[in-house]
Predict the structure.
Amino acid sequence: KNEVEQSPQNLTAQEGEFITINCSYSVGISALHWLQQHPGGGIVSLFMLSSGKKKHGRLIATINIQEKHSSLHITASHPRDSAVYICAVIVASGGGADGLTFGKGTHLIIQP
Amino acid sequence: NAGVMQNPRHLVRRRGQEARLRCSPMKGHSHVYWYRQLPEEGLKFMVYLQKENIIDESGMPKERFSAEFPKEGPSILRIQQVVRGDSAAYFCASSHSGTYNEQFFGPGTRLTVL
């Protein structure tokens, strides 16, 4: 079982819909990243959070440390939001490698 | 204000050759991470370096792979005697100070081994 699980694996929605992508993890963490990987392959860091909620434009990320769960929401989705969204965690000190541990990603397609 | 730079963006090598991948971190960042994304797979951590030090190489294959981050110049990921299974996208990320800081990713180097 992966330490970081994302759902859904694939998501197709219509432009304007509210999107939710979920991430659950099974290890103690120091922080969690949400990343966006474009069709061309580049990776952009969207959020890093260790508690509560962060908002940037139409993107909102939340985390519940007790439940070991995070969500990424996209409001008023647009075709340019089509990408792979990746959840990645920093395992708490002593728990693993010093780099990020990644989920397999959620492939999001927003149709016009 | 340049971001993380990687070169080359695409690299083609024949089996048995050496591949050298370069990463220049963001200005002011002294921590570098290398990750590998195999075709149709997720990203995997390889190695974490600070200037002149390897901090964690637990994700690096034991043979043929090495990494360095010298006092001057970019970080280098070196793959000796490449095999077809090394074909992947290799991403570098940098942070200002340590693993608890946000990491910023480079555009990646796509290695193809013929």
In short: Residues 24 and 69 of chain A are 4 Å apart (CA to CA).
